[in-house]
Write a structure and sequence with these properties.
It contains 4 helices and 11 strands. By secondary structure, the chain is of the alpha+beta class. The radius of gyration is 28 Å and the shape is elongated.
Length: 241
């Protein structure tokens, strides 16, 4: 006993609980904004059940999701491997991509821009801008006796849908120099923009990315049926007649 060795204890078997998994629908490759999704763009991927968000599409509840989403349009871009969410897809049923990426209740309207009025081409789709109107001011002309102009902000925190035919940044492109900007506006704001184009020159001013979540400014109601434009920072409201 003194010269012998103690017996080697048997290895302890650690039993790990089985991890519950689910199949989640993900993007097989990159899906661009406004692209019509095809079955080859989607794939099922095994995820831990604890990590699967309730908004993800799961095979056990929607086994035919790949075929059901065929032809749906992406309202936001997907990266490869990103889970597919219904909120970022829309079944357009033959409609164009622009109507698909519009937010509910909003309208798309275009306006002419130039390098001078469009921040030198540095405005990209999905940026937010303010719209300025520069016009002749008859009252100021009377006072100065010469050319009198005034500039005012007529729309604030407006989302840019497209520059010409470009609806998203591609291949690292940082500048889009176009002649037309398509904006997402409320129906009331489209009236203001259309009328303002006849009164003077429109310019876009780029907003900081951190300011995009501020509430957008709507046009106030006018019981006379006229379109009002708020002069920000000034209490007075000017009515277009």
């Amino acid at each position: 006993m003194l010269s012998g060795r103690a017996p080697t204890p048997a290895p302890v078997q650690i039993v790990r609980p089985a991890i519950e998994t689910v199949d989640v629908l993900v993007a097989r490759n990159e899906i661009g904004l406004g692209k019509a999704v095809q079955p080859g763009d989607l794939d099922w991927q095994t995820w831990p059940a604890s990590a699967a968000n309730a908004q993800f599409i799961q095979k056990k509840t929607q086994p035919n999701a790949v075929e059901e989403l065929k032809g749906a349009i992406a309202r936001a871009p997907f990266v490869a491997g990103e889970p597919i969410r219904e909120q970022k897809m829309i079944r357009a049923n033959g409609s164009g991509f622009m109507s698909a990426i519009l937010s509910p209740g909003m309208r798309a309207i275009s306006t002419d821009i130039s390098p001078e009025t469009g921040v030198g081409g540095f405005i990209l789709p999905n940026d937010h801008v303010d719209v300025l109107l520069t016009r002749r001011d008859p009252e100021r002309q009377k006072v100065t006796g010469g050319d009198g102009f005034t500039s005012e902000t007529i729309l604030r925190n407006v989302r840019v849908l497209a520059i010409d035919q470009t609806i998203e940044e591609k291949n690292g492109q940082k500048v889009v120099v176009g002649k037309t900007a398509t904006l997402e506006l409320t129906p009331r704001q489209t009236e203001t923009l259309a009328l303002s184009r006849q009164r003077g020159t429109l310019s876009l001013t780029l907003r900081a990315l951190t300011e995009n979540k501020e509430p957008r400014t709507d046009i106030p109601e006018d019981h006379s049926g006229n379109v009002n434009v708020v002069r920000f920072g000034v209490e007075a409201v000017q009515t277009f007649k």
